[in-house]
């Protein structure tokens, strides 16, 4: 369902492929339309906005004086925090300045982000519009009929997610009541993000998957060539957009150590080489 990926040019920009028969198209998946990757002029303009926003974000993580100044100018809370708090503060400043891209929740691919794109920090996923939450592993949207559908998930390693027995599959643990954390874990309930994943299974809708990957090579990162003053992630991990998956099965099970109930979701990567069907065809 995805057009051929463009190749990087010598100056770090992207060579533009032919655009014939691509402008304005959307993909259909089980009768529901969602955005696919279409390399139009608008796509490249949005991608440049992401590059600029990530460059500014990484600069703010280094230049705390500039961050504090912009917090005052945007009337944001300037409480001094470390770690993730600083990352959130920098992201919120850019949001107030209108630098975020793809701010509306959508099913399928988001504009100007390609499969394989890599990000230094978790908050960068929100800035690019790939995953609209700083901490939750499952993001979902509400339809007009009140039903919720999952738009994206992050496999960050906090839960017991397991690679599948077949290629391009893995089992994802439901949201909330993580038995690996907390003093007294409780049973998970089929609500919130877990309910949205269950609804995505029933309606056979695609879900964006972002993986946390360790021990990476910076030279292969698409969004890694940023302006001077930016700082890379020295923690030895990155977040990689892995593409669209479909929930093929879900079930409750009891954890052996704690005996608490968790929900498992089996996801399979969608074969993006299949022919696409466009609205009106």
Automatic annotation (TrEMBL):
Query: Mind listing the GO molecular function terms for this protein?
Result: double-stranded DNA binding; histone methyltransferase activity
Residues forming the YDG domain are 108-269
Question: Any idea which UniProt keywords this protein has?
Answer: Nucleus
Q: Does the keyword Ribosomal protein apply?
A: no
Compartments, record wording? Chromosome, Centromere; Nucleus
Q: Which InterPro entries match?
A: H3K9_HMTase_SUVAR3-9, PUA-like_sf, SRA-YDG_sf, SRA_YDG
The organism encoding this protein is Corchorus olitorius
Cellular component, GO annotation: chromosome, centromeric region; nucleus
Q: Which domain of life is it from?
A: Eukaryota
Protein known as? SRA-YDG domain-containing protein
